[in-house]
């Protein structure tokens, strides 16, 4: 026997919570939703966060609204499973973030005053450091940097955390010098033909690149997303130019495609003037 959906006149968040409870109902819920766990849902949570970022990158506010709804569903899904396990509820999640935001903004909700934005950032980091120290089992400054983050993002966070205690290259020039050093070490392993060591040295190169991004206050994931989009745009230009010549890329060669790539760059530059 089917039951009607929660009434539309409910507050939207209450209706969403009721919908999720219904989907997870052991008697007549959705079989797919019922078999999910925190671990199986986690990849969808990460994917939805990326889709939010993609909508922002494209400037599509209608799509952003929908993607934020999908991301909110992930929070509701995890919260429902936790409530079923007797761990916490959606209200507990909301209460925790409310308390955290008030605690981390003493200049807004308390008596603290900051002389500058940099001073405020220092205060924010000090509050976060105090919170980390209060967590049971914390033994390292790096303990709570999530392992599941994208590699470059985690590298930035690890190096940023280490920088709070002075473990940091002082200038951009120092980081660039280290980058050249690591590239040299990687090329030496390429020459030696040791792929395991090449992989390790390439990792070192990427870690230093992440440090360079942090030093320049650039999000490396944003930077590489922009470059990915640029690559797609220019390669499509190459494909279109080849199609006008009655060719496909596999009927061309590197010299021809490289010349068309340079043409794509010139067209883009001319269009930006």
Please tell me about this protein's structure.
This protein is an all-alpha fold and 273 residues long. It is 72% helix and 0% strand. The model has no long low-confidence stretch (mean pLDDT 92). It is an enzyme of class 3 (hydrolase). Keywords: Hydrolase.
CATH architecture of the domain at 12-97: Orthogonal Bundle
Approximate strand percentage: under 5%
* CATH 4th-level superfamily of the domain at 12-97: MazG-like
The level of helicity is: over 70%
Largest sheet: none
Name of the level-1 CATH class of the domain at 12-97 = Mainly Alpha
CATH level-3 fold name of the domain at 12-97: Helix Hairpins
Order of helices and strands: HHHHHHHHHHHH
Rg, Cα atoms, Å: 25 Å
Task: Show unreliable segments.
Answer: none
* Global outline: globular
What can be said about this structure in brief?
The protein is mainly alpha-helical.
Offer a few descriptive terms.
single chain; 273 residues; mainly alpha; Helix Hairpins; 12 helices; 72% helix; 0% strand; globular; EC 3.6.1.8; NTP-PPase_MazG-like_N; NTP-PPase_MazG-like_C
């Amino acid at each position: 026997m089917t039951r009607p959906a929660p009434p539309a006149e409910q507050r939207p968040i209450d209706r969403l919570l009721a919908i999720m409870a219904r989907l997870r109902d052991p008697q007549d819920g959705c079989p797919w939703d019922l078999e999910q766990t925190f671990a199986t849902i986690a990849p969808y949570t990460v994917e939805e966060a990326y889709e939010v970022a993609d909508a922002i990158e494209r400037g599509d506010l209608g799509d952003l609204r929908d993607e934020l709804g999908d991301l909110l569903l992930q929070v509701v899904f995890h919260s429902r499973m936790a409530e079923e396990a007797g761990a916490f509820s959606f209200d507990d999640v909301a209460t925790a973030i409310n308390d955290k935001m008030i605690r981390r903004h003493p200049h807004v909700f308390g008596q603290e005053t900051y002389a500058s934005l940099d001073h405020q950032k220092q205060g924010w980091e000090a509050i976060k450091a105090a919170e980390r120290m209060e967590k049971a089992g914390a033994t390292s400054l790096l303990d709570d940097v999530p392992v599941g983050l994208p590699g470059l993002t985690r590298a930035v966070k690890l190096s940023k955390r280490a920088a709070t205690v002075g473990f940091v290259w002082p200038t951009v020039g120092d980081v660039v010098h280290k980058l050249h050093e690591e590239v040299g070490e990687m090329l030496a392993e390429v020459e030696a033909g040791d792929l395991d060591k090449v992989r390790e040295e390439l990792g070192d190169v990427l870690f230093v690149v992440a440090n360079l991004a942090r030093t320049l206050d650039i999000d490396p994931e944003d930077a590489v997303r922009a470059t990915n989009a640029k690559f797609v745009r220019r390669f499509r230009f190459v494909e279109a130019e080849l199609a006008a010549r009655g060719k496909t890329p596999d009927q061309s060669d590197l010299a021809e495609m490289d010349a068309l790539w340079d043409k794509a760059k010139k067209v883009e530059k001319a269009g930006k003037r």
